[in-house]
Amino acid sequence: MIQSVLIFNQQGKPRLVKNFNKTLNNSQLVNQSFKLVQDRNQACNFVSLGDYTLVYRNYATLFFCLVIDSNESNLGILDLIQVMVEALDRLFESVCELDLVFHFDQVHFIVDEIIQGGLVIETNVNQIVNNVNEQTLRRKKSQEAPLIPNSSWFSRLKKT
Predict the structure, then answer these.
(1) What are the pLDDT digits (tens) for 132-155?
(2) What is the CATH number of the domain that holds 111?
(3) Which residues does the UniProt record annotate as the domain AP complex mu/sigma subunit (predicted)?
């Protein structure tokens, strides 16, 4: 089971933290994960943390990390990180750190489309991007809709 999804930059600032295990401390987990992966350029992408394993991948200025238990495949999770990055790249057309900062809601949508409750539910990049675009479109439509529909009593109220 996936315990946590972390994305942070090269300075260790978290850009996304999503825990599926409530017993893990967010700030401690981010700090410890960053310290473990920051200087491992030529090393393996798997770090053992006792009961858990940290699987990570470095893309440009961002570290994508997933904390998993022994029931998950390390290589499968590495592929899942690739799926996540491809989905972000298609959604933002060459994703960068600023996209994660300014469009954090869409980043959460992507993670929610891929992982729910610590379980992988979708790995098809096209399906993920289509679902996120659909959610974004629905959200924009709901924000544009008036809170009070046009009705006779409302129009009379506006005239007075």
Answers:
(1) 999 888 888 888 766 666 656 556
(2) 3.30.450.60
(3) 1-134
